[in-house]
Design brief:
By secondary structure, this protein is an alpha/beta fold. It has two domains: 82 residues, AF1104-like (Up-down Bundle), CATH 1.20.1700; 245 residues, Rossmann fold. 50% of the residues lie in helices and 9% in strands. The chain has a six-stranded mixed sheet with strand order 3-2-1-4-5-6, with helices on both faces.
Length: 361
Amino acid sequence: MPAPAHNDTAVFPLLADPAGYTACPWDLRGDDARRTYWLGVFRKHWPTLLDQALAEAADRGVDATGVCRQADRRYSHYLDTVEQDPYAFGRLDVMSFCKHREGALRAAGIADPYRLVKERENERAIALLPALLEELDAADEDGRDRLIIEGVFAGNIFDMGAAHTQAMFEKGAVDFGSVRARLKPRPWRYDALGAWSARINSKPYEAAVLFVDNAGPDVVLGMIPLARDLLRCGTTVVLSANTEPSLNDVTHAELAGLIGRVAGYDPIVRDALQNKKLRLVESGNWAPLMDLTRVSPQLAAVCEELPIDLVVLEGMGRSMESNHNCKLTCDCLRLAMVKDLGVAEAFDAELLDLVMRFEQA
C-alpha cells in the first residue's frame, strides 16, 4: 500500500545521532495490549474520517462514495492483516498506522478530508488573534511568557484525530478563551516554564525552527504568538508545517495564507517577513507524527544556513508519540496537551494533562 510520494528527503541536520534515531520508539509487534489498543483507535476513527471526506467532496460538487469505499477496502484490509499477523509489514508502530491510512486515502484520490473543518476553524481563530496579541503586548514579562505557553496548550485542543477532543468539537463545546481559562493548574505534568522563561529572558536565541501542528486555534492562537514573541526578541524564526494534508494538521500552503493575513495588520510579523527574519519552510511531512530523518531538502538547507539554536516540537504526535526521546544538537522545547488514553498511559499522565519539556543542549 503506497504512502504519499516523496522524491527527495533529507535528514534533519540538528539530530544529534541520526544513526541511532527512531521516530516512534513503541514497537507494537510484541506488545499485545498496546497493539490492540492502537488497532482499536484507528478502526474507530476511520469511519469518521471517511464521513469528512464525503462532506468535503460534496462541497466541491463531487460524489465520493465510490472512492471512499475503495479507501475503506484498502485500509480495512491492512488493519485486518495486522490484527492477524503483527509482523506482516515489518516494523509496526503508531506511525505505521498513519502511513497506511494516508496511503489508502491517496490511492483512492482523497487528498484533504478535513479541508472544511480547517477552513472553519482558521476563520474563527483569525478573528480572535488581534485581541489576543493586544493582551500579550500589555502583559509584563513573566505574565506574557505564561500566557503564550497557555495559548499553545489551549489551541492544541483542536485535534480531530483524538477521540476525546474530536467529540468536544462535534458538540461545539470548544472555545479558545474558555479552554485557556480551564487549563489544568501548575505545576503541569511536565512543567519547564520557569527554566524556559529564565533562558529566553536572559539571552535571545539566534534562530529557531518551530514545527507547527494543527490548523485553527492551534497554529493561529498558539504558535503564531509564540513565533511573534521570539521575533520581538530578535530571533530569526522558521515556521515549518506539513507539505501535504493529514487530518486537521495545517499545511505549508495554508500557513502561508494565514501569515499573510496577520502581516496585513501586525508590524512585527510584516517586518519579519520583509527582512527574512520570518521564514515559512515546508517540513516534507505528511502525517500527524514526524520522522526527522525524512524532512524536506528545503528545510535541511535552511537549517544548514542559519545558526539554529532552538527547535520547538509542538503537538502530541510530533513531541510525544514521536520524537519524545530524540536528542538534538541545540535546545529543544516540546509542547503538547495529552488527548489520548494510550499516550497518557505511556507517560504516566491523564487526559488533558499539559506537557512542557525544555532540554538545553
